[in-house]
Amino acid sequence: MIYADYNGSAPLLPCVKDYLKRRLETDLFANPNAIHSMGQKIYSGIEKCREVISKSVGCYPDQIFFNSGSSEGISHILFSCLEYAPKNKKIIIASGIEHAVIPSALKYYEERRGFEIKKVDVNQDGVIELESLYKLIHEFNSSIALVTIMAANNETGALQPIRDISQLCQENNILFFSDTTQLIGKGDFHFEDSGIDFAVCSGHKVGALTGSGFILAKNPTLLRSYIFGSHQERGLRGGTQNYMAIETLAVALDDFMKNKNKLPLLEEARKKFEAELKKDFLDCRIIGENAQRLAGTSLISYPGIHGQAIQIELESHNIFVTTSAACSDNQPETSHVLKEMKIEDDIGRGVIRLSLSYHQNQNDYEMILKALAQAFNKLKKIKAY
Amino acid sequence: MIYADYNGSAPLLPCVKDYLKRRLETDLFANPNAIHSMGQKIYSGIEKCREVISKSVGCYPDQIFFNSGSSEGISHILFSCLEYAPKNKKIIIASGIEHAVIPSALKYYEERRGFEIKKVDVNQDGVIELESLYKLIHEFNSSIALVTIMAANNETGALQPIRDISQLCQENNILFFSDTTQLIGKGDFHFEDSGIDFAVCSGHKVGALTGSGFILAKNPTLLRSYIFGSHQERGLRGGTQNYMAIETLAVALDDFMKNKNKLPLLEEARKKFEAELKKDFLDCRIIGENAQRLAGTSLISYPGIHGQAIQIELESHNIFVTTSAACSDNQPETSHVLKEMKIEDDIGRGVIRLSLSYHQNQNDYEMILKALAQAFNKLKKIKAY
After folding, report:
1. Closest CA of chain B from A242, distance in Å
2. Strands B319-320, B2-3: pairing kind
3. What ranges in chain B are assigned the alpha helix state H?
4. For an engineered disulfide with A191, which of A59, A115, A195, B115 has Cβ 3.0 to 4.6 Å away?
5. Which residue is closest to B230 within chain A, CA to CA?
6. B210, B329, B335: which to substitute to probe chain A, counting the most A Cβ within 10 Å?
7. How far A171 CA sits from the closest chain B CA (Å)?
8. What is the nearest CA distance from A54 to chain B, expressed in angstroms?
9. How far is CA A126 from CA A1, A269, A292, B373, in A?
10. What is the pLDDT of residue B331?
């Protein structure tokens, strides 16, 4: 089997599985906030994990706030920045290629809180135009409550110029949130160096347990309670800490740290795969081809062949891919990301997304290439009728 | 070892551990929203769990919304009911014995949304006074946005008259949310029969994985998005579904269904334990003694002896208890629940909470009694100095 849907969800890493198997043999299950020794042991385990994770993502341990994942993290950050924004700051700058959480949350702040959203332009490779952001910042400067632009796109894998964006925001004293869900555990990321004010992580995107994750906050005093509760996570995230999942986050991000030197090889294999695919199938298109992308992400379209047809063919070879973002995978239309990139429907409906992990390599790409070539050859005949 | 902190957190049930060990041997880890067969298998697993859980809690499957647990569930329900309340409804009726999430959330709605909180009286056994609720409802009737009263108190175990409350609320067309975190998986509960509008569950209170849980909504159209996202949980709870944790919720609540006939025996053993303790230690006090309580919960105080001292003594016998609610366990003062019950500080600071599960029995209580008697005898001598 080749699993090629890491941007949708990463299966548990082998080291995480091993950890969990050993963990289940212990009797250490209790409330980390209890004063008995079991509770205290679990609590100190959480703090050790915070240390490990801080090293992996380049921040101070007390800049990490554990939660249930990025959808919660994004909702929490937007609430903190927008609900508590000064009254004169009613402009939000966002890209049109954000993950579904962002537009759905922004709609709420637009409709019920009187915010106005200004969209930054995106080029044909799915990368935001800095010039467009620059203009918006200069036009709306002191009325801007927040700039929200993701770090790596979930569909195309296109990396966004987050350092340039954070520099621009810092110069203008504007808060910058970057959805780093697809970058953490898949590419180079260092929170402090990035200059971002808020970032997020989902455990299930990095090979840890689903339902885990965290917020990174440069200045934690800007965070406000969203999931209410007691003093957990310094009063900023109520609910009994999901300690076993937090432990798997530390195991997974530590594994990434130890293996991220494999990323250049993965990227090279991906580029070779894409080049060979295009050589054999002249009509085939790689979306975001010229963008710097996540090492293992390709969004591929063959005009006139529906992505789902290709997905099914690949599955008959035991290769698992999706047609776009997992969470909108059963919507048979061009995604909002591709529309934003002005991709024609004929191309947009035909896409399949391959997203591989740092533990995969050229062998996987070779097998995928073979199966994909067979699928294209078969389906283009059907298309011709 | 005797673990007696089930109201704080239930260790994973043995059947849940077994399930997880087998589950980790599979390769079925993917995004349940993906169209490939792995995603679809996981998705249909979630829906099977919804069926199992619906039977255990007495509701329709589509009244269940999976989330990360009760703190999220409560925050979500309060947001749905209060943020979207008609403008003329600005009164919230709440008890003063609610779990910390509720007062901290209500403070937000009071300070930033102009709501006013009216507290319903509580008797000396920690049970709300229906007469007091009746008066408040008649005084504020059409301006009441919500009544929020828990089903079973986490510290005393006192059961609240939720059927009477829901009847009163229904007669007056008022929404009633009951925090059922401590009742589900520990006592008799049937959502439909209860008449409650909204209820919540936390996985780690029922022996499932931490970081899992759900909302029950009588009328799901009253729920609004709080954790934003895509179409997950019918568009009402964003974020990739925590499928493995949901699976453990089904395993745990099914185990409860099969074993809840053990509850009367547990209650009998608890009553016998309490009677013997009081016989041997005349000064000893059981808080909420005359209330109907969760079968395995006792909140015990020995005036002048600090609860933490008893907790440490018991731990030397490998018995794990807490001094009050786990999440405020390291605050050395009388809890807000006991203050509300007008318990004097001398008693309030001395409490230890024993909370046992339906898998425990008279043997456990006998061992606890022996250790507790030793602790009391030792510590009351120190107290005398």
Report:
1. 5
2. parallel
3. 14-24, 37-57, 70-78, 101-113, 130-140, 162-171, 191-194, 232-235, 243-259, 263-280, 307-316, 336-340, 345-348, 362-384
4. A59
5. A100
6. B210
7. 31
8. 22
9. 30, 22, 10, 71
10. 59
Interval A207-261: pLDDT, tens? 999 999 999 999 999 999 999 998 999 999 999 999 999 999 999 999 999 999 9
Interchain pair A230, B108: CB under 8 A: no
**Token duo for residue B380:** 């009351």
Closest in B27, B35, B315 to A36, CB measured: B315
Q: At what angle do helices A101-113 and A70-78 cross, to 10 degrees?
A: 30
Does A327 contact B27 at a Cβ distance shorter than 8 Å? no
Nearest-Cα residue of chain A relative to residue B308: A35
CA B88-B94-B95 angle, to 5 degrees, is 165
Residue B253, helix vs strand vs coil: helix
CATH code reported for the domain at B2-10+260-384: 3.90.1150.10
Does the distance separating the beta carbons of B311 and A238 come in below 8 Å?
no
Å between A205 CA and nearest CA of chain B: 10
CA atoms within 13 A of residue A75's CA, in its CB half-sphere:
27
Instruction: Tell which phi-psi region holds residue A28, choosing left (phi > 0), alpha (psi between -120 and 50) or beta.
Output: beta
**CB B69 to CB A327 under 8 A?**
no
Q: Which helix (H) or strand (E) holds A247?
A: helix A243-259
Largest CA distance in chain A: 72
B239:A315 CB<8 A: no
Query: Are A226 and B21 an interchain contact pair (Cβ–Cβ within 8 Å)?
Result: no
How many angstroms away from the CA of A151 is the closest CA of chain B? Answer: 18
CB contact under 8 A, B68 and A204: no
Candidate CATH numbers 2.50.20.10, 3.40.1280.10, 1.10.20.10, 3.40.640.10; the one for domain B14-258: 3.40.640.10
**Two structure tokens written together for A250:** 């530390």
* 10-residue stretch averages of pLDDT, chain B, 385 residues long: 97 98 96 95 98 98 98 98 97 97 97 97 98 98 98 98 98 98 98 98 98 98 96 95 98 98 98 97 95 98 91 97 68 84 88 97 98 95 68
Q: Which residues of B touch A248 (CB under 8 A)?
A: none
Under 8 Å between Cβ of A288 and A156? yes
CA A121 from chain centre, in angstroms, equals: 20
Angstrom CA distances, B296 to A123, B135, B314, B353, stand at 63, 33, 17, 10
Q: Find the closest chain A residue to B99 by CA distance.
A: A229
Which of B108, B242, B349 has the highest number of chain A CBs within 10 A, making it the mutation to test binding with A?
B242
Secondary structure of B166-203 as H, E, C letters? HHHHHHCCCCEECCCCCCCCCCCCCHHHHCCCEEEEEH
Residue whose token pair is 């949980």:
B233
Contact A37 B202 (CB under 8 A): no
Residues A278/A282/A287/A292 CA torsion (nearest 10 deg): 40
To the question of pTM greater than 0.90 for the whole model, the response is yes
The rounded mean pLDDT for chain B is 95
Taking CB atoms and an 8 Å cutoff, what residues of chain A touch B70?
239
- B243 min Cα distance to partner chain A (Å): 8
DSSP states of B117-166: EEEEPB-TTS-B-HHHHHHHHHHHGGGEEEEE--SB-TTT-BBP-HHHHH
- Domain A2-10+261-384 belongs to what topology? Aspartate Aminotransferase, domain 1 (3.90.1150)
Test A228 with B104 for CB contact under 8 angstroms: yes
Residue ranges of domains in chain B:
2-10+260-384, 14-258
CB nearest B240 (choices: A210, A244, A321) = A210
